[in-house]
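Bench notes, afternoon.
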Amino acid sequence: MFYNPFVMNDLLNKLLILRSPGIGPVKYNNLLARFGDVESIVDSMQLSSEFIDDVKREMDKAYSLGIEYLDENDSRYPQNLLNIKNHPIVITARGNIETLNKKTVAMVGTRHATASGMDFMSQMACKFAEHNFAVVSGMAMGTDTAAHIGALRADGNTQTIAVLAGGVDYIWPLENESLYYEILDRGVVISELPVGVKPIAQNFVQRNHWVAGISDFLILGEADEKSGSMTTARFALDYKKRVFAVPGHPSDPRSLGPNSLIKSGNATLCMSINDFFDDEKVSSKKKNNTYQNEILDKLGMIPVSESVLANLVKKSVAEIKADLVVLELQGLIRKQDGGYVLN
């Protein structure tokens, strides 16, 4: 692969500045305003040859792994992230770089999500990917994993973006190793941290900044009130992004986060993919008979038992059983956790 020597030298200078202790986007921009260009900044820093060699080795390792550096002047740098104050000056990306230029939806929530909560987010993610959105999340266990997997169920590539709290080559958690490589094949993994860096606690908050920043809007699933996912949602609100929240049972601590955002008016209630798109399967219910329509109107992503459904449509359980069988055979509903949900 051919690399422009001028571009490579400019990138090296930027990394020499950014990899120096205590220098982030704010100090970098202050130095640039003072000295005028990155070469002059580097000349003023009197860096050791050992430090310069370390940064060069990082670059060599990155290119050997197919990792690319995107600075803020690169047309492939995510536009949404570019619009955020104090955004990363340089990010690393591995996978399908073109994913970064798609419409994006962030989908976040607790690592300890319920099966139904993960299923809901996974199905939503798949639908968004089918509608040409890239699903953004942090590749953590639970909700993040469900969102990435759901997006990857859709056909085609460029379906999902994983924002990491360590180096773009550092797989964390290890349980998601296979998911990581699937994302490389059909999406992209990005980070602002040096190649090879292990994620530490303080980096996850910054990672949450960029999950919110890179997205067009955000959907919050199950989340404790003091969780990192709630922090991500607040970052999205700070960035003037629209936040949607999936409600849950009041007694479940994992519902306190989304429920509180809905109650305060800071988040829009999210009940199904129909809040964003016309769903073909749901719209086809108009072809069914009256009782079947009524049943579908009462279902969503939370399982509803036969007895509750019968009460809602004012029929006996025996009377609605045949309709449930027909709807299930048509692929409009399915059994889950002792009840029925929309498919």
